[in-house]
Amino acid sequence: MTDATLVADPAPSLQTGGRPTDGRTTGGGLALRGLTKSLGGRDVVAGIDLDVAKGELVALLGPSGCGKTTTLRMVAGFLPVDGGTVTMGGADVTDLGPERRPSAMVFQNYALWPHMTVTQNVAFPLRTRRVSKQRTAERVREALELVGLTHHATSKPTAISGGEQQRVALARAIVQEPDVLLLDEPLSNLDAKLRVSVRDEIRRIQQRLGITTVIVTHDQDEALSVSDRIAVMHDGRIEQVASPTDLYARPGTRFVASFIGATSTVRGAFLADVRTPFADGDEVLVRPEQVTLVPDAPVTATVTRVLIRGHFAEVVLAAGDAELRAFVTGAPPAVGSTTGVRLGSVLVYRDGVLVEGPR
């Protein structure tokens, strides 16, 4: 096949946040309505409604088996829906295959061709769409510059690091100039330090290009760090959708409170220091940073454990059979010592739903 038989691609530059003009939907965000999926006789996704605004990054966060990856695969078109609709840019794409949707997906295992160079891997989706060689070369060069991999253009995937392989997979997705970028556990195969740097790189590129993005993760730190909003999933349903700040400060359900950040149940002698109204049968929780160790507090406790976390220590306190955890900077108290305990803001749950929390 010669260049003369290829279709020229007039799409603007990646660097300017341009969008394709090859017939795919342009602009707009993502909307899910009543999305359902049953697998093995079980409702893996049980009626999800979610809106992702244009240019927004939303994380689907939850434990293994909660339905987040199944949801992402239905959005991408790799898995048919049992019910509900998927809308991108105002157009219903529910019945379209992945190649006909204005989206691109980065898989957990990267799915790179080992026999191809980095350039060939990134160029692959453009070649399958019959984009001209000249325009393909331009867009691949821009994508590799964006992810900082021009020096590995001729390398094979087996010759580069895991973090670099992840950036190749990201470049292969963004070279398509999608309206919606889908990321399936993109950092799970990386070590902790590399995970942070690649995470920050993904956020930088997403904001620079203004791509509507959905990322699936089970890592709360990852979700809190990169997202505009987080949708916490549990048993195939969305428990709460909120900004990272609001989600941490006011988790709407007991499950969200237990999954996002650390909490302790306030009971026994510690309840004497709770100033927030609560009723019999309510569950009172407190974050470790809301537990302060002071010498003159009315409630006292014994230090049973000290866990060094780097720049702070996690101190485990016991009063009778009740236990709390506190985050302490500086020199922690000694195990076996007694200290006063004062509580700040608490979270009160009734039948698993938040009824009182920080304003």
Explain what this protein looks like in three dimensions.
Helices cover 23% and strands 30% of the residues. The protein is of the alpha+beta class and 359 residues long. The strands form 4 sheets. A 6-stranded mixed sheet has the order 6-7-8-3-9-10, sandwiched between helices. A 5-stranded antiparallel sheet has the order 13-17-14-15-16, with no helix packed on it. It has a 4-stranded antiparallel sheet with strand order 2-1-4-5, with helices on one face. Helix 2 (118-128) crosses helix 3 and helix 4 (162-174) packs parallel to helix 5 (192-209). The chain is elongated, with a radius of gyration of 24 Å. The termini are far apart. Residues 1-13 and 15-26 have low confidence and may be disordered.
